[in-house]
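Morning run. Coffee first, then this:
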Amino acid sequence: MYLPHDILYSIFGTLDGSDLKSTRLVSQTWRACASVFLFREIHVSSAKEDLDIFQKVAQDPLLNKYVWHLKYDATQFVRPITKQQYIQKLYSQTRWKYYCGTTSWKSDDSEVDEWMNDVLSHRLSEHDAVEKFKTYRFIQWGYHLYQKQASFQHAVMSNGKFLEGLTQGLVGLQKLRSVIFEVSWNYESRLGDRRCGSYFARHWPYYYSCPDHGRMGIGLHANHISSRSELRAPDGVESVRAITHALSQAGSQITSFDVVNPGGCSPPGLSPSFFGMSEFPTRLKSRDLEMAIGAMSHLERCVLHFASCMDKPFDDPSTPEQFPSLAGLQAMLNSMECLRHLELRFPDEYTEQPRMYNVNEILPRGKIWPSMRSLILVSVTATAEELLNIILCHTPDLRSLGIGNINLADGSWEDFFEALAQSKKLVRLRFERCGYLFHRNGEIFPLYDGIENYVVSGGRSPCLADDEPNSAAGKFLPGFVPTIQNRLALRGPRSWLELVCWRGG
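And here it is:
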């Protein structure tokens, strides 16, 4: 039976990977139509299986023309690791994955079932679990495979084989448009049901310890469980260097780059040390910066989720806490002339008082992005005037703003929101989840009901007291310099309205 290509595309677009593989076996026509969806997104990692598959697809002229998106699995296996550390890691991962939404498991191995029951029912402490299960078969075999993969990953990253294979593959992907940099493995509804990610990730047994670092993310050092004398580079730094070098050497002009955490409850991400001048030998040198700029200068979309800003493990008191410099990030952002969407998410790094990067340490001074439509900033420090200057001057065509966990070093949120409301500029305001708005030396700003609607579409300011008239909202503006006030008067009426507001966490 003959079906037009547009109908086949409509049908095949709803199928998952296994069904698409089956449809490719029906006929040459179905094979070509199904390949459009099956190979639109491919994966790569430093695992031998993933690298082999990536190179085969990239070098096949019948398949590489369909590839638009590349997902780079940047998870790392800790090396070296003892059996005790391996079991401790598996213990915490098992409980973490279960409480993040995985509610059931199924195994034909009685040892695995015993492990699951003991760990999830709190029958055993971490120390008791190590003593009881250290001789179990699935622990010994899992520890062996973990060490084997860790050694292989370290070897291919050190000797340049991975970079060479990645570059050769990217040369063949002429239609590549985006790279998604994944920093953890994703799990679906059941603990033993992982159908996402690369081939290697999908086939790694769920009862073996995974390479992700759970709630701590990859901002910590690769050997964070060892002594400080053994520390090298923060996790993920070598992976970012590899992808930026490969993209630059292959001449790939991608338009989208995302660092995301698809499987975590807490957001691990990219270490800020990649962009700074830290103590590590793999810090961002001039050659690395040149490669990063060459790979990223054509971006229209840039999403960066950062891990811990502290340039050392959480439990290491040997050196004072400090944030690594982001001079490399500023230079890279300064090269992006066509940027339309920018999302920067830093982690929570505060106890009693917020301690975050200042916006002037992140964004290049004086840079104007005329095409930017959407901006999201999470966990940064700025003054009210600095934020308004970014929104009104540096992003003149901004339409969507997302903020969360922002600390105003000077000014108040009442002033800021009143200025945005009078600018008549935004058509979308979004408060990000799991974050607060700080001002007045650490005081938390109450998110009044309707503040988003007021900023976007006007009306009565919810910051006013019940007995104050609408016109009293003007009292929030006199603190701003005249140039900001003049800027507000130049804005035109809104063209359309879209309101999104996320609350809670």
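The chain has a mean pLDDT of 78. Good start to the day.
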